[in-house]
């Protein structure tokens, strides 16, 4: 069989010949990031899932990536990596920011939005941010011309109709008697921003999907009217709890299924808007920030076959926050009529880290100097000319075990090595103890997708692959140590909590609903 190098040489030649003549105009980009979505939440991936007809159609009309991974297994680090092409050990974002965080994604890190804006793009972010909201960490200061959304996860504040969560959370207090509830934010209402202005606090969760779709359509229309290419980063509230499905859920679908159906319809609506600009002008990339949040039981997503059986036998979950496949293997679809082959399934080892360098390359923009990137320009894979992605992919610790952000699991071809394992909280309340492995546990994912049976250390296969894994691991750590790395400020101050009216209980805004036809309102003092 051909070596990866043999495949890449003609591919690069093709890219060189192809690029100038076809990409005479910079393409539009829409990146849709679902939250806490499981690999099995996509019908095209997992036949048992019936609630995603629009996503399945997207898969049929584009390319589906089945070995695609989030850059971390939890919210803020995963998003920071998508927007910088760098792992948390480089960009400084190793764990989640709080509602009272003063910092965010370090300001010396260049974001995809900043670089695309410099390349002539109109840039918009809609939905969840979770990369800092205080001062210059707000999306409007990080390269986005327009922002509409919630500055962090939508369970990080109370609302009047709290939706479904486990344990259930109470609505925002109306009187000064405070109700403290474990795992619930009861003191401050959840804010909704348009640019720097809080337009609603608390957010009306039931209408959020519709509003995100409307704002996305308006942003796309405005950008299209201006004649500039656009980059829209749409970070959905789905499938993170609390879930607020259109009521009542259809029989047999349950709350999760009904919410999944709502997310699917929202993605379908965005595709429709993109198609209306002229098919082929817009690349749409759908993926997820990490795997399902297992401790939410029936309100958590579907893992498909990625059950992390070795960990499950020892307690705890093997999904979100872990470095098991269920934590970071996510659905991924790319749709770009006329450029990305329809109905294709790719087995290339890819990551959300690749979005940054790939979109910059397609826009004709250069990577920023003086730093190293973990992502690759995978446009040859998108175009179907190659099925070679990463030779090595690192999976950072994301809360379940080991130092957060540390690299103690990695992938080399079909082999997955763990130097540390641990389970996040499972539905039954158990967690899996942190265990260190020297020599590492190694699984052959081609034969053991469930990560059930590590290779026997004495086996020929283990002995054959261990030197390559050890070398790849040492090289990765060396590369990080030699890089220009940033440090995020994780300090907190109650003054950083978004609050549109400090006089009102829970920061409630009275009548701060927005007229969709009024542009450029004066920003309130919200930061």
Task: Give the ordered list of helices and strands.
Answer: HEHEEHHHEEEEHEHEHHEEEHHEEEEH
The spatial strand order of the largest sheet comes to: 7-6-5-4-8-1-9-10-2-11
Main sheet: strands, sense, barrel: 10 strands, mixed
Number of DSSP helical runs = 12
> Could you name the CATH topology of the domain at 28-390?
Alkaline Phosphatase, subunit A
Radius of gyration: 22 Å
Mean pLDDT: 92
For CATH, the homologous superfamily of the domain at 28-390 is named as: Alkaline Phosphatase, subunit A
Number of strands: 16
- Coarse shape: globular
Keywords: Calcium, Disulfide bond, Glycoprotein, Hydrolase, Lysosome, Metal-binding, Signal
Catalytic activity: an aryl sulfate + H2O = a phenol + sulfate + H(+); Hydrolysis of the 3-sulfate groups of the N-sulfo-D-glucosamine 3-O-sulfate units of heparin
Family: Belongs to the sulfatase family.
Pfam family, one: Sulfatase
Please provide a brief summary of the model.
By secondary structure, this protein is α/β, with parallel strands linked by helices. It has helices at residues 4-22, 53-61, 75-84, 88-91, 112-118, 208-226, 254-276, 309-312, 325-328, 355-363, 379-382, 460-481; strands at 28-34, 63-65, 68-69, 122-127, 146-149, 192-194, 197-200, 230-235, 282-288, 332-335, 344-346, 350-351, 392-396, 407-412, 415-423, 432-444.
Characterise the protein shown here:
This protein is of the alpha/beta class and 527 residues long. The chain has a domain at 28-390: Alkaline Phosphatase, subunit A (3-Layer(aba) Sandwich). The chain is 25% helix and 16% strand. The protein is built from twelve helices and 16 strands. The strands form three sheets. The chain has a ten-stranded mixed beta sheet, with helices on both faces. Strands 13-14-15-16 form a four-stranded antiparallel beta sheet, with helices on one face. Helix 2 crosses helix 7 (254-276) and helix 6 (208-226) packs parallel to helix 7 (254-276). It is globular, with a radius of gyration of 22 Å. The termini are far apart. The model is unreliable at 1-22 and 512-527 (pLDDT under 50).
């Amino acid at each position: 069989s051909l070596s990866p190098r043999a495949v890449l040489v003609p591919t690069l030649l093709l890219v060189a010949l192809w690029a100038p003549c076809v990409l005479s105009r910079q393409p539009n980009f829409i990146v849709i990031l679902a939250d806490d979505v499981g690999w099995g939440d996509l019908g095209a991936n997992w036949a048992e899932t019936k609630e995603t007809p629009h996503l399945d159609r997207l898969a049929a009309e584009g390319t589906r990536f089945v070995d695609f991974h989030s850059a971390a297994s939890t919210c803020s680090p995963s998003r920071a990596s998508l927007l910088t092409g760098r792992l948390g050990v480089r960009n400084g974002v190793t764990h989640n920011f709080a509602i009272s965080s003063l910092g965010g994604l370090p300001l010396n890190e260049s974001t995809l939005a900043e670089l695309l804006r410099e390349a002539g793009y109109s840039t918009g972010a809609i939905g969840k941010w979770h990369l800092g909201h205080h001062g210059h960490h707000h999306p409007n200061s990080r390269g986005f011309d327009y922002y509409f959304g919630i500055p962090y996860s939508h369970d990080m504040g109370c609302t009047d109709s709290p939706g479904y969560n486990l344990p259930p959370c109470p609505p925002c207090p109306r009187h000064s008697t405070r109700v403290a509830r474990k795992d619930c934010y009861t003191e401050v209402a959840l804010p909704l921003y348009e640019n720097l202005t809080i337009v609603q606090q608390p957010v009306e969760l039931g209408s959020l999907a519709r509003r995100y779709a409307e704002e996305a359509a308006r942003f796309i229309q405005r950008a299209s009217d201006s004649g500039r290419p656009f980059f829209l980063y749409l970070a959905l509230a789905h499938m993170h709890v609390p879930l607020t499905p259109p009521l009542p859920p259809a029989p047999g679908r349950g709350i999760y299924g009904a919410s999944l159906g709502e997310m699917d319809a929202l993605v379908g609506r965005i595709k429709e808007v993109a198609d209306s600009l002229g098919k082929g002008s817009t690349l749409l990339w759908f993926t997820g920030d990490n795997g399902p949040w297992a401790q939410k039981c029936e309100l958590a997503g579907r893992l498909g076959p990625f059950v992390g059986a070795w960990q499950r036998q020892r307690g705890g979950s093997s999904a979100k926050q872990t470095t098991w496949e269920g934590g970071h293997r996510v659905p991924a679809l790319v749709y770009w009529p006329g450029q990305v082959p329809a109905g294709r399934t790719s087995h290339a080892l890819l990551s959300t880290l690749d979005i940054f360098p790939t979109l910059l390359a397609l826009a004709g923009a250069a990577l920023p100097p003086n730093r190293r990137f973990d992502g690759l320009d995978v446009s040859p894979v998108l175009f179907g000319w190659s099925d070679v992605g990463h030779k090595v992919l690192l999976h950072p610790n994301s809360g379940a075990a080991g130092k957060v952000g540390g690299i103690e699991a990695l992938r080399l071809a079909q082999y997955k090595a763990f130097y540390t394992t641990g389970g996040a909280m499972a539905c039954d309340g158990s967690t899996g103890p942190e265990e260190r492995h020297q020599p590492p546990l190694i699984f052959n994912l081609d034969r053991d997708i469930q990560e059930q049976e590590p290779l026997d250390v004495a086996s020929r296969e283990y002995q054959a692959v261990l030197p390559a894994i050890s070398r790849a691991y040492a090289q990765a750590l060396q590369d990080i140590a030699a890089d220009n790395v940033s440090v995020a400020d994780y300090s907190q101050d109650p003054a950083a909590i978004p609050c549109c009216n400090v006089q009102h209980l829970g920061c409630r805004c009275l009548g701060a609903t927005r007229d969709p036809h009024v542009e450029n309102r004066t920003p309130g003092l919200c930061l």
